[in-house]
Every structure is written in C-alpha cells, then in structure tokens.
Amino acid sequence: MLNSRFFDKDRSVQERWFRMKFHRNFGLQIKAVFLWRLYRKLEKEFKAKDKVINGAIEITVKECKKVNEELFPATKQFLNIGLYFLLAERDIQALKADAFAHPNETKRNIALRALLLTIYEWDMGKVTGRRMQFIYESTGLSDSSRSMVVDALKKLKKARKAIENEISEARHNTIAHREADALHQYEIISELKIMDFSIALTGLYEASDMLLKSLVKAMLEIGTTENLFNQVNYRKK
User: What superkingdom heads the lineage (predicted)?
Assistant: First the structure.
C-alpha cells in the first residue's frame, strides 16, 4: 500500500514506479498478446506468398524440363538459378512467422534455429558465378536487367554473410546438437534471440524480394524471340 511520502515524490518518480509495477504484473500477458497478433499477421502474409512461390516453382519446374538445353543452354541455366532461389525462398518464408512470433517459446526457438541454418547453408554462388557471364553474353540481356540481377545478388550475399558471421559459433548447435558439452549446447541455444538477428534478417528478406523481382524481369526478357535467337547464334560462333 502506498504511503503519503510516495505522493510527495517527483511526478516522474511516481510514473516510473507505476510503469514498473504495471510491467511486473502484466508484462508477460502483454507480450503474449503482442506475439499472438504478430503471429497471425505473419501467417496471413505467408499464406499469400506461399501460394505465389509454389505457383512459380511449378511453372519453373515445368519449363526447366521442357526447354531444349542444346538449343537454349542459357535459358536452362537461368531456370535452374531461379528454381534454386525459389526453393530456398519458400523455406525461409515458411519459417518466418514461427521464428519471429510463435506463441510457444520452444517452437519459436526451433524455428529460429532452422531459419538461421537454412540461410547459413544457402549460397547462390553455387548456381551463379561464371554461369551468369555466359547467360549475359549468350542471351544479350539488357544492361538494365543485368544490373538489377547483379545488384540483387550482391545485396543478398552481403545480408547472408552478416547472418553467417553472427551464428558461426552456434552453427553446430542450431539443429544437429553436435556439441558434446550439453550445458554449453543449452546455453548457446537458450541465448539465441530473434532480436539479435532482426536487422540482418530484415536485410536478407529485402534482398530476396529484390532478387525475385530482378529474376522475373530477366526471365521474361530471356524468353523473348530475340533473346532465344541470340542463344542459337551464340552457339554457332
């Protein structure tokens, strides 16, 4: 119970005391409500994106199987790049809601570990590199499309590198439980917090959106009659 001396204190002191008391009594409930609302919001966003991504994957797989690699090798390689990206993009989008805001702390932690490990292992360099130069040369891809793809790949690489550096120590414990010292493993897992990676993850999601747009633009251009003829003529050189 408050005594009379409390009301003699400065108003800022009184307000701070009430905030602390309110947070102590209702902090957990407020956090739970916030997480629930955020989770619902992210799940709704994911359902819309998942439908689009799965549709894009189906189309890409169909086209990749259908294209004649001997006549249009650049198209085949670019479709492979697109599919490689889409498969990883589907995973990181699927894990986003659970990693950021699942109401259950254990599931939230597991989703975060799975998300970080997926990003850690995701390397677009495996399917780009020299292949991109061949694609640019053989298709005659416009400078604007080429620039968009290059910039997006650089941004994604930078964002992924930031996350890779932050979880290098915890990598073995993210999913596989490779650390023999169980207490050390517990401490590493328990200390993983989404807010520690929020800036890097935001950058990665922005970069992946940018890359998706650039790949779509480039693919539409590569699929034009002019660019298909460029590939055929390039083979004859």
Answer: Bacteria
